[in-house]
Amino acid sequence: MKALVYGGPGRREWKEVPRPEIQDATDAIVRVTAVTICGTDLHILKGDVPEVEPGRILGHEAVGVVEEVGASVTGLQRGDRVLISCITTCGRCRYCRTGSYGQCLGGGGWILGHTVDGVQAEYVRVPFADTSTHRLPDDVSDTSAVVLADILPTAYEVGVLNGAVKPADTVVIVGAGPIGLAAVQTAQLYSPSHIVVVDLSPTRLDAAKQFGADITASSADEAGRVVREVTGGLGADVAIEAVGVPETFELCTKLVRPGGHVANVGVHGKPATLHLESLWIRNVTITTGLVDTASTPTLLRMVEAGRIDGERFITHRFALDEMEKAYQVFENAGDSGALKVVLQA
Fold first, then answer.
1. Please, where in the chain does CATH 3.90.180.10 lie?
2. How many C-beta atoms surround the C-beta of residue 297 within 10 A?
3. Which residue in 9, 51, 189, 256 has the fewest CB atoms around it within 10 Å?
4. What confidence tens digit (pLDDT) does each residue in 203-238 have?
5. Which residue intervals define the domain Enoyl reductase (ER) in the entry (predicted)?
6. Are 212 and 184 spatial neighbours (Cβ–Cβ below 8 Å)?
7. Residue range 15-45, pLDDT digits in tens
């Protein structure tokens, strides 16, 4: 089969590799029918995630059809169409029993495309398949479902829920990439009074308005000004960091009000300065997190009911064997205008 293989920082190749086989009784082999690229994959290629070893198949967001199941898999059978979660869960350890699947101690967590081979391939082995996949309704398309593998639950859980967004809040989202836009969409579930989106790209700011932001800003200075204006000088109730660089995290800590929440979602490859000398007295809550995907069943029902439109995130479509072209478009989003790219078999 063909797969996208990491060759070390700055190196990747779509090439022939052995087709995966069942290794454990809880495994399933899934034929990939739709897959996407995540900003985290770009962080890996920059060398920001050193746990990923050369030779690893990348990717953790996909939809597919079950081809084979291990002897202990009881909830899936050949031919089932499934969403593959970006988080794998053993379902038995202390963290899994409390819904904190991202911290799984039993061999799960974020492993696909990280510590085991991922989904940017024609076939993938899914460990703990019963608890790490979701069967899809017939009326939910592959491309609507694939955004539920990571970006929607990540933005919702790590951004909106960790940020404790409430009705009438002023929410600032720094970064209008796919995660930031998913935060815009899911923050609206809580009826904030204002959603302010900050990004350098005019194209992405336009997208943010289409997704529901009522105010946009293209610089830190502009963001500070508009937040002061709409809050009477108080500051944002919630600031969601959706980029993963020191400057955007530090901007969030400047925009948030005393007693507010900073929810960091972005994947950071470099240290960010935490200005405790000014934050300690302001009662600011700062949260970080890896998505647990405990919200995926709820979000899937919302997509099925038409309350969330997964298709609107997709800006570019490719055949599965156009992986290199898709990466080029996604990593040059400033020029291409790409939000999410989807590759289909």
1. 2-150+292-344
2. 12
3. 51
4. 999 999 999 999 999 999 999 999 999 999 999 999
5. 7-343
6. yes
7. 999 999 999 999 999 999 999 999 899 989 9
Cα separation, 222 vs 201, in Å, equals 14
Residues 6+ apart with CB under 8 A from 301: none
Q: What is the pLDDT of residues 89-113, one digit of tens each?
A: 999 999 999 999 999 999 999 999 9
Tell me the C-alpha distance between 131 and 75, whole Å.
9
The first and second tokens of residue 98, run together, are 């409390």
Pick 153-287's CATH classification: 1.10.10.10, 3.20.20.70, 3.40.50.720, 3.20.20.140.
3.40.50.720
Superfamily name with CATH number, domain 2-150+292-344: Medium-chain alcohol dehydrogenases, catalytic domain (3.90.180.10)
Task: Note the pTM of the prediction, 2 decimals.
Answer: 0.94
